[in-house]
Structures are given as C-alpha cells and as structure tokens.
Amino acid sequence: DGGITQSPKYLFRKEGQNVTLSCEQNLNHDAMYWYRQDPGQGLRLIYYSQIVNDFQKGDIAEGYSVSREKKESFPLTVTSAQKNPTAFYLCASSISDSYNEQFFGPGTRLTVL
Amino acid sequence: AQKVTQAQTEISVVEKEDVTLDCVYETRDTTYYLFWYKQPPSGELVFLIRRNSFDEQNEISGRYSWNFQKSTSSFNFTITASQVVDSAVYFCALSEGPYRQNFVFGPGTRLSVLP
Fold first, then answer.
1. Chain A to chain B, count of Cβ pairs less than 8 Å apart?
2. CB-CB contact of A5 with A105 (8 Å)
3. Phi, psi at residue A44, to the nearest 5°?
C-alpha cells in the first residue's frame, strides 16, 4: 500500500540530546513537509522540501534540521538548541506544489525528559 | 493577519444531529484552493476535500457536504446524522499559490459527538 510512514511512534529524549525522526513515503511525491503540533493547537510548519537536495525553512525552523538526499525520505533532527521540543510531529507529502492536497503520516510524539 | 478563521473552537452534538463547521478565509488572489482535513484521536490528518476557487458547486460525499460561497469567503462543512466516529479535530486550509509559503491551516474545530 502507498503511504507515509513515520518512526518511531513515541520517542523519549533526555535534555541536551539530538534526536532524528524518520519520514518515508512511497507515493512518488516531490514535496515533503514537517509540522509541529502542540496540545490543543494547530499545525506549524517547520521545514519543507519541494525537490530532492533542496529544502526551505518554515515558520519555526530554529532548533531543527532536515535533509533530502532521496525523494522518498525526509528525516527531521531535533537538536539540543530547540528549547521546547516536546510535541507531536507530523510529516506530510504532496504530488508537487501547494495547490495539491497533502497526505500525512501517523506522527511521532516526542517527549523530553 | 489570520487568513483562515475557524471561529468554533469546540462543538458538542448528540449522535444523529447535523452539525456545520464554519471556515472563513481571506485572500486577494483569484486562483486559490481550499481544503478540509480530519484529525481523529489517533493523530494522523486525513484529507477530506480540495476545492478550487473557480468551482462553487457544492459537494456531497455520503454524510459529508461542503458549501463554498465566494461572496462570503466561506467554505463550510456539514456532517449529516453525526456519528461518534466523527469525533475529531477538523482543519480548514487555504493555498494561494503553488509555493509552500502560500499554504495556511486554520486553527481547527474540535467536534465531539456524544452517544
């Protein structure tokens, strides 16, 4: 089945540690996105990529980094510079540009201990 | 300025009632797209519908229907004969152009359908 997978589903991290969240899609989509969602809040864009080897900062990129070395993969690293990393992280993809609907993965819930 | 407004933060209805979720948007573009997504308790957002600015026909899909009115800049979503499984947060979104910086989600409306 085509879709987006995110792993792990739950992640615990100690303060000061970097952690990488995985996002893989087999939909052959060009564009991929990372969102952060805090409890009871909407979605905020962290990073997006419209093509391999290219990505752009979203609204809240500070403390995060990404790479896009393969079309199907868009991992997100939460660095120790991110002051409040505890949140729900959602990865999405779309065929090409923002005129198209985005399809979402199941999310990763990150908790900093 | 917020470009997508979902004024209803939370709505509670009893099963089998009809419910309408409001979405008001703001744009100066003549070409744009509107979307609705559902986020059930599991967390994964589910795409429901995409509508372009040139198509004002209302859409019906089973118990779901959408009313797009450019005159009032609204794209409202109605669930007929609601069910407990409809309980979720619903997001309206606007895309004003092909680039990611032109895409914005509304704040969401939490719908609780009580048995």
1. 58
2. yes
3. -120, 135
Q: What is the pLDDT of residues A7-46, one digit of tens each?
A: 999 999 998 899 999 999 999 999 999 999 998 888 999 9
Q: What is the pLDDT of residue A38?
A: 92
Tokens representing A75? 């991992």
Q: What ranges make up the beta strands (E) of chain A?
A: 4-7, 10-13, 19-25, 31-37, 43-51, 54-57, 64-66, 76-78, 87-94, 103-104, 108-112
Through-space distance between the first and last CA atoms of chain B, rounded to whole angstroms: 38
Contact (CB, 8 A) for B108 and B21? no
Q: Which residues of B touch A5 (CB under 8 A)?
A: none
Contact A56/B100, CB-based, under 8 Å?
yes
A8/B contact by beta carbon, under 8 A: no
Band of the pLDDT at B1, cuts 50, 70, 90?
low
Contact B47 A56 (CB under 8 A): no
Selecting from B35, B42, B105 the residue whose C-beta is nearest the C-beta of A42 gives: B105
Q: Does A31 touch chain B (CB under 8 A)?
A: yes
